[in-house]
Amino acid sequence: MDVPTNAVDVLRRVFGYDAFRGEQQKIIEHVIGGGDALVLMPTGGGKSLCYQIPALVRDGVGVVISPLIALMQDQVDALTALGVRAGFLNSSQQLEDRRAVEKAFLTGELDLLYLAPEALAGGTSSTMRLLERGRISLFAIDEAHCVSQWGHDFRPDYLALSMLHERWPDVPRIALTATATSRTRADIATRLKLDDAPHFVASFDRPNIRYRIAPKAEPRKQLLELLRTEHPGEAGIVYCLSRASVEKVADFLVSQGIPALPYHAGLDSRTRAANQSRFLREDGLVMVATIAFGMGIDKPDVRFVAHLDLPKSVEGYYQETGRAGRDGLPSTAWLAYGLQDVVQQRKMIDGSDGDLAHRRMLATHLDAMLALCETVECRRSQLLQYFGQEGGACGNCDTCLEPPESWDGTVPAQKLLSTVVRLDRERGQKFGAGQAIDILLGRRTEKVTRFRHDELSVFGIGEDLSEPQWRGVVRQLLAQGLLAVEGEYGVLALTDKSGPVLSRERAVMMRREPERTKRSASRSGG
Ligand code: ADP
Ligand code: ZN
């Protein structure tokens, strides 16, 4: 069988496209050949074809595991329209429909079967028994970051998917995600038992999106200014943290003559569906929404995505801003960020139900997001670095276009890194940013005296900066990859880039911290 020709043939005949994009062909050939794969591609990158084509070429039914139950009907309809035999099984379904899909699966009259992960949880469900009686061509595990506690969207049901490998050792598995740092990626591979699978990592760059992060002063006025001067009459999404602010901002925009609709989980499902379909169909509507909105939304001409509140993670930010400019035309990602956002999110983390490890993970995500907000370097290259890609200054983000005021933070960086080196020498003991800062500030806390850290040469050498400034230094070093946090306890560690800073071969520039007085804190409440 001439596999590649076959794949190209299916691409043209069934999907009507001329050529594969990026890594698609390599991935597809690999899976058709029976190999496992871990695929990282940004939203809109074309992940679906990576399992749909192998499922059509290989014998048997391709089983797709997806958490997006609400989208299964749409996905199946779209495939059916192309002449692909697809079905889904989920809890929202009529018994009759279910039976029909089960029968089609068993008789091999399906090409693709979509399932929710909970259908397989426990490994003893009726769905499991059904799968064992059919012939499966491959397993596609969509939104694979859901298996990782390090991701931003952990779903316990995904953990059960590790058994696919044991029960069907000969069936290839392809895990796909649009959002994974190198740590999450490693975690996905371990938990899904994909240790030997090659990783296919597509570029995460979205060159047509201009990233901008502004200090939050009067967020609604700032937003209005943006819409009126740069995006009049254009479609966009405005993300807010709470349902109440969604409603208020939507009302405000309407009162200013801008057509806007609200979307959040507190609206009844009919209103939600109606607003969503208006946004997709009509031109120039602004959707004001919580992050409940957007998964799987494929509207090519979204010209801007604005965040009025700080996203909880870089992954979330990247995914939400990625909904702008899918058509490749110039688009804006704009975020207003103030001290109050940080205070509020720290509070939410402290008050969250999870255990300590979970809270630390949330804090790490938040720190990375803050670092992106505070960088003096190109936003895009920092964003790409976060996803493990290198890149120079882009010329299409706010820091490239209007370089911010910066200061030479080399000396504080050396002080902090030297402290980390000394703490690292204490075998068996692990310390985080708090301890390092206490030492630099010369504080004789209980924990400092207990470990005799007041006897270290670095004790008290950082009194020229305040605690918040030191936190800024830590965040910015993390952001620049000159420092790392490891493990569930947030232990600080050097990276392979730290050496040149310690040996004075490399300077470290930092963004000037905005004046964070009480007055600006209360004004930036938004
Ligand atoms: P993802 O799941 O990665 O977000 P999709 O699989 O939904 O992305 O693909 C995004 C869009 O790109 C879809 O409209 C899809 O039909 C289109 N697409 C994917 N691959 C190709 C290709 N090789 N040529 C042209 N269009 C493609
Ligand atoms: Zn840039």
Automatic annotation (TrEMBL):
It is an enzyme of class 5 (isomerase). GO terms for molecular function: 3'-5' DNA helicase activity; ATP binding; DNA binding; four-way junction helicase activity; hydrolase activity; metal ion binding. PROSITE patterns: HELICASE_ATP_BIND_1, HELICASE_CTER, HRDC. It catalyses: Couples ATP hydrolysis with the unwinding of duplex DNA by translocating in the 3'-5' direction. GO terms for cellular component: bacterial nucleoid; cytoplasm; replisome. The keyword ATP-binding applies. Residues 509-526 are annotated as: Disordered. Residues 219-370 form the Helicase C-terminal domain. Its cofactor is Mg(2+); Zn(2+). Its EC number is 5.6.2.4. Residues 28-198 form the Helicase ATP-binding domain. This is DNA helicase RecQ.
